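Your task:
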Amino acid sequence: MRDILHFSHANGFPVSTYRKLFGMLEDDFEIRAVDRYGHDPKFPVTREWPHLVDELLDSIEQKYREPVWLVGHSLGGFLSLMAALRRPQWVRGVVMLDSPVIAGWRAALLKAGQRFGLDERPSPAAATRRRRTHWPDAEAVWEHFRSKPVFASWDEEVLRDYAMHGTEPTGNDAERRLRFEREIEYQIYRTLPTSLGARVARGAPVPVSFVAGTRSREVRQCGLGATRKLVGERLRFIEGGHLYPMERPEQTAGLIRDLVGQMRGDGAACARP
């Protein structure tokens, strides 16, 4: 019987963007996920993301009878860790994909920036407000994304999934629009949690692992000090930027599989008398 792996996506990328990654994991895991965080009015985007954590926990509570593995990319990694802090009895372990814990002076600086509206420039929030949302047809979506430098290193199959499943018909002929609402993406960036570092300073109640992109701007900005302290030897690096799961889905799947195996082994060792 396969373990359940509940995956949480990065900000702005509906979970179907990760279809290729899931295909490489489905022999070992039963994959479940929330499609788009922040789009259910019952779970609005607010500072520190408590309702987004509620959305993840609600999904777990409704579906599972046994503890599950939580894996998340960027936003999803933070939500996975925060859910494990809230309900550790529901979680076997967490794998965070380029979701570096913000702590210490960096967390204080971010909190001040959020208060005075100075946090927008160093994050993708400003670009989000200018993001294109409509295209005349599916081929125009594909051509638009393919021409952007940020997508140049993406696996082509993953990019096609994003072009198709990250957009939806508008009902106006062949026109398509982004499925992840631009304003919700913007608000998620503007409400990054600043208290998480303090909450995990003494560790977490479940095993936690981390995979960092070697060229990740987010890792450079946040540092890895607090993350290293949290995960210990369960830290891995992969060639790529912050969006490495889209660039290298096969390698990402392999690291997830290896880290879950390590956490499973660590848990079995702890359970022995």
In short: Confidence is low (pLDDT under 50) at residues 269-273. The chain has 13 helices and nine strands. Strands lie at 3-8, 29-33, 68-73, 91-97, 134-135, 167-169, 176-178, 208-213, 235-238.
